[in-house]
Design brief:
With 467 residues, this protein is α/β, with parallel strands linked by helices. It folds into two domains: 2-134, no CATH class; 274-467, Alpha-Beta Horseshoe (Leucine-rich repeat, LRR (right-handed beta-alpha superhelix)), CATH 3.80.10. The chain contains eleven helices and 13 strands. The strands form three sheets. It has an eight-stranded parallel beta sheet with strand order 6-7-8-9-10-11-12-13, with helices on one face. Helix 11 links the parallel strand 10 (344-348) and strand 11. It holds the Pfam family WHD_DRP. Residues 303-440 form the R13L1/DRL21-like LRR repeat region domain. Keywords: Plant defense, Repeat. One of its GO terms (molecular function) is ADP binding.
Length: 467
């Protein structure tokens, strides 16, 4: 009760201190140490910042402090998945240990911030994959990071032209509407110490602004994170994290993308890029690949280039691709069944939502089935999503007789399956299954009795699924 008094009755302060206390033993002496901590008496902080948050921050180890402050750079109300955030932490050098385990250690850091109530998971995302940060906590973190980071969101975006470029290691920039004309790439060229750049929204690019990348290549710059770039520029070979999600106007990657040998994270999700230059197979350090376009068109990489990417943990093969793969032999060469680290697989064919429904010929369905049949499930698969699948039968590795091989599967989502007529009978024989989501599957007329009788697995919202 004395600790609660210290929190001045503020619910957020109590919640954060509760997150700190849960890290301690329940001995009275440990709790008294928190009560008597000198941090409660710190006077140099602005009055609107909370001492309970400061106490929790001081209790973090050094690397976790850096991760916490970095999270506050992310623009509010913009979704960043946990694997993207962790990739940025890794590229900044906040995660130490064996480089093979960086993503695992990063997830542990992420979970610690949640356990301490410094991050709040968004309920609609599986596995706490997306979090929010309370405004008060965000203000506190941004205050502490003020000497090394420039945060310019919306109305403050024009301030980027007035900061001292020698002191800034990180810039987070979010623009909207006419604000994008207030500054551009040219205003970033003086920032020779820049390590992370987060861009959300439009930015002005002049024809000669590509020199920014060659300048960074010769400086202390090593890492990069950017979103919503309106046209492609040539990146440096030291990049570890590239996120081009939602870059609708971006239609092409540079031919040298295969030389980015340090790259661990690449997202082209929901961008305008429908093909990748050959050479992707050289990115053997890649852990996360989102938005990979599978179809072959001219001098572009195909599914077979995935074969050498044995470190993959997350793979998303995106729409306008799988049903256009000309031969299942490309899928065989992807060697998904040999990727022992791959735990998240997202297979997306062309979505029919929001557009004209086209009839799919039986031959097309058979070819799509053959392709997915050869995209054999990885041995340690935990998360599987299939979307926009235009065939009647699910891949053979999802049939009833093969379901036992999916023993590690925890989350299964199937969405927009217009022709699929039945579900595998063995779904509820999966020992680890926690979440099953089936949406927009109108051809399924009945489900098996295992959906109707009680057992230890529970479906969100009961046994119904949406048509």
């Amino acid at each position: 009760m004395s600790i609660i008094e210290k929190c001045d009755g503020l619910p957020l302060a109590v919640k954060v201190i509760g997150g700190l206390l849960r890290q301690r033993n329940t001995r009275q002496s440990d709790w008294k140490n928190v009560l008597n901590d000198s941090t409660w008496l710190v006077s140099q902080m602005p009055e609107d910042l909370n001492y309970a948050i400061y106490l929790s921050y001081q209790d973090l180890h050094h690397d976790l402090k850096s991760c916490f402050l970095h999270y506050a750079l992310l623009p509010k109300s913009t979704i960043f998945s946990h694997d993207c955030i962790i990739a940025m932490w890794i590229s900044e050098g906040f995660i130490h240990g064996n480089s093979q385990d960086f993503e695992v250690l990063g997830r542990e850091y992420y979970d610690q911030l949640i356990a301490r109530n410094l991050l709040e998971p968004v309920p609609r995302f599986v596995d706490q994959g997306v979090c929010n940060m309370h405004d008060v906590i965000r203000s506190f973190a941004q205050y502490l990071a003020r000497d090394e980071a420039m945060i310019a969101h919306k109305s403050e975006a024009g301030l980027i032209n007035y900061i001292n470029p020698q002191n800034v290691f990180r810039i987070s920039l979010k623009t909207k509407g006419s604000e994008s004309n207030e500054h551009g790439w040219s205003s970033l060229q003086a920032h020779i110490s820049l390590r992370t750049l987060i861009l959300v929204g439009g930015i002005k690019i002049n024809p000669d602004d590509s020199v920014i990348f060659s300048m960074f290549a010769d400086s202390t710059y090593r890492r990069w994170k950017f979103r919503c770039i309106v046209r492609i520029l040539v990146p440096t070979q030291t990049l570890e994290c590239i996120d081009l999600s939602n870059c609708k106007s971006l239609v092409k990657l540079p031919g040298g993308v295969g030389r980015l040998h340090q790259l661990r994270y690449l997202s082209l999700f929901d961008s305008g890029i429908n093909n990748i230059p050959k050479g992707l197979g050289g990115l053997t350090n890649l852990r996360i690949l989102k938005g990979f376009p599978a179809h072959v068109e001219g001098d572009c990489c195909s599914l077979e280039e995935l074969g050498s990417l044995n470190q993959l943990m997350v793979l998303h093969i995106h729409g306008h691709g799988l049903e256009n793969v000309s031969s299942s032999s490309f899928a065989i060469k992807a060697r998904l069944g040999e990727k022992v680290h791959l735990s998240f697989l997202y297979l997306e064919c062309t979505s029919r939502r929001g557009g004209a429904q086209r009839l799919v010929k039986h031959e097309e369905q058979q070819e799509t089935e053959k392709v997915l049949d050869e995209l054999c499930r990885p041995p340690c698969l935990e998360n599987l999503k299939i979307q926009g699948y235009l065939s009647q039968l699910l891949p053979r590795w999802m049939t009833s007789t093969a379901m036992a091989s999916l023993g590690s599967l925890r989350n299964l989502a199937m969405e927009d399956l217009p022709y699929c007529a039945e579900l595998p009978d063995g779904l509820f024989q999966l020992p680890s299954l926690e979440l099953l989501q089936i949406e927009s599957a109108p051809a399924i007329k009945r489900v098996g009795p295992e959906f109707l009788i009680p057992h230890h697995h529970e479906l969100p919202g009961g046994s119904d699924f949406k048509n």
